[in-house]
Design a protein that fits this description.
mainly alpha; two-stranded antiparallel sheet
Length: 195
């Protein structure tokens, strides 16, 4: 009897899942409202209306769902909104990762420029910014983009909960086995024909 139990457990297949991007991941990668405001003020960039962006996107999704309500069933609406929210969340996360890389490059360039022994990072002619300054300004612009997309994603997640009645969770897709190529599958089928 223990042999049967052991065999059934051995034959059970565990399907690994590809983890989706969560709202928590976005919050770790993208600046919050306070940091966005500080960056805007430090670099002379516009201060974003974080709450306005969030509220507008929430309203947009709620109104979209309302317009589609008669044409879509409950499950179809859930799938549709899952995809829309997933796109906003994925976009914000991508922007957050890009922002993080831009900050790293700006820090590296600034640290190199602070070294008196280097000639490569000496400021250019009067009226032109140094490479390190351009990288800092680029990182600041990316911070605002990442923050704006974070707020849009937060708005769509809130709208999903409002419309569907449950918290949004990322769709988790089963990971295809990268080791099993078509040739390998074909060989297995051919060999199984021999018995």
């Amino acid at each position: 009897m223990t042999n049967k139990a052991a065999n059934s457990r051995a034959s059970a297949r565990v399907v690994p899942l590809r983890k989706g991007t969560t709202l928590e991941m976005i919050r770790l990668a993208c600046p919050d409202a306070a940091q966005s405001t500080l960056i805007s003020e430090s670099f002379g960039l516009p201060v974003l209306d974080s709450d306005g962006i969030r509220d507008l996107h929430e309203k947009l999704i709620v109104e979209t769902a309302s317009a589609l309500d008669e044409g879509l069933g409950e499950r179809a609406m859930q799938i549709h909104l899952q995809r829309i929210v997933g796109a906003f969340v994925g976009s914000a996360y991508g922007a957050g990762q890009f922002y993080s890389r831009a900050v790293t490059e700006a820090r590296d360039a600034t640290a190199k420029a602070a070294c008196d022994e280097r000639d490569e990072d000496v400021g250019g002619p009067v009226g032109f910014d140094s490479a390190a300054q351009r990288k800092r300004e680029f990182a600041a612009e990316m911070a605002l983009q990442a923050h704006a997309l974070r707020m849009a994603a937060e708005g769509t997640v809130a709208a999903y909960e409002h419309v569907i009645g449950e918290k949004w969770k990322p769709f988790e897709r089963a990971v295809e086995n990268p080791g099993r190529t078509v040739d390998r599958k074909a060989a297995e089928l051919q060999m199984s024909a021999f018995g």
